[in-house]
Amino acid sequence: MLLTLCAGCGNPTSTPDQEKIAATKVAAAVGEPRTIQRTSGTPTVAPINTVATTPTASAVLGVLGGNQATPTLKPVPSPTATPLPLPYAVTSPTPIAFPGKGTVLERKFYSPILKREMPFRVYLPPGYVSSGKRYPVLYMLHGLSGSYLEWLDYKLFDTAEDLMSKNQIKPMIIVLPSGDQEYWVDHAGGGLQWGQYMMRDVVGFIDNNFRTIANRNSRAVGGHSMGGHGSLQLAFNYPDVFGVVGAHSPTLRTKEQAPDFFGDEAFYEAHDPVSLARTAPNLNTLKIWVDIGTLDDGWRPRAEELQSVLENRGIAHTWNEFEGGHAGEYWIEHVADYLRFYASSVISS
Q1: Cβ(3)–Cβ(152) under 8 Å?
Q2: CA 55 – CA 6 distance, rounded (Å)
Q3: What one-character-per-residue DSSP string does 178-201 give?
Q4: Cβ–Cβ < 8 Å for 318, 289
């Protein structure tokens, strides 16, 4: 049986419009990872409800939701003196049957930053409905050729359900947001602010409507291909929001390869993970994972450049090389590895 999977979500010699979804058969031999690990100091926690004259990224994410099992709606504080045009709202939540003990919801919410409704899917771990507990959150970002449902093709929810039900990883909320083909990045020249949408709107909505542990040490962001670029860029620019980051076969474009919305050289460098790895402060407060395939992944050179920069700067990180290419079967094969990293890295209390 063939699955429609993102086989490249980016090609170093192509433009974004030329990249298509490829049908790939789910069967691949897997090599042993080569891991580089270093220990950094204890991260500094920025309280989610910090009040400051100039709001930080953490300060705009809002207060925790209630302790009730069913999420309630609360408006999220504005990051500026001007109130948001509308409170966050849920549109017709539809439960989805799931074979295990977890719960999957398909929802939409209004994004004040993008000024439109955006879909997402969320996995609530076994026991969420009845426990009254708060949980860490993992945000998983899709690739260029996919949608917010792409990680379902890679068995993310199925694998999470299996591992959590067997007590092999700690329970987490997992969110699949929608990022279109915009690289999860603010666009230059006053364009749409996809990074702010992710950092403020998506995280703010989830914290206000689900029982999350709303601090950076309990919040992870990860993604593959375009989503790997997005996760690194967001975590490197907003380490007070995300304390854990994973990039799986990240598509790290050079200035010449980048879409026009990456702007001039200065704007590009402020949003390019390799450039940020050289200059961004506080990266040692992050728990960082990067993996890349050893076979036929054209994005490998820049991933290796990123690893080298982190290495030379003494930034703690885990670097993994697995046998495989830039294709769906590679991510399926390693989704359990990803989940173990995130679950072991976030703080549950």
Answers
A1: no
A2: 38
A3: --TTSTTSBPTTT--BHHHIIIII
A4: yes
User: H-helix or E-strand containing 236?
Assistant: helix 226-237
Note the pLDDT tens digit of each residue in 32-59: 333 333 333 332 223 323 223 333 333 3
3-state secondary structure of 38: coil
The residues that bridge with 193 in the sheet, in sequence order, are: 186
Q: Is the pTM of this model over 0.90?
A: no
65 phi and psi angles, rounded to 5 deg: -75, 180
Question: How buried is residue 48: exposed, middle or buried, by Cβ count under 10 Å (0-12/13-18/19+)?
Answer: buried
DSSP classification of residue 202? I
Percent of the chain topping pLDDT 70: 71
Q: How far apart are CA 249 and CA 229, in angstroms?
A: 9
Q: Are 321 and 291 in contact (CB under 8 A)?
A: yes
Q: Which residues contact 16 (CB under 8 A, 6 or more apart)?
A: 10, 144, 181, 259
Q: Quick one: which of 244, 218, 247 has its CA closest to 232?
A: 247
- Which burial class, exposed, middle or buried, applies to 108 when counting CB atoms under 10 A from its CB (0-12, 13-18, 19+)? middle
Residue with tokens 């849920």: 90
The answer to whether 316 and 36 have CB atoms below 8 angstroms apart is no
Determine the length of the chain. Answer: 349
Handedness of CA 15, 16, 17, 19 (dihedral sign): positive
Number of alpha carbons in the 13 Å side-chain half-sphere of residue 83: 5
Q: Residue 51 class from Cβ within 10 Å (0-12 exposed, 13-18 middle, 19+ buried)? A: exposed
287-293: strand order across its sheet: 94-96, 103-111, 116-124, 173-177, 137-141, 219-224, 244-248, 287-293, 318-322
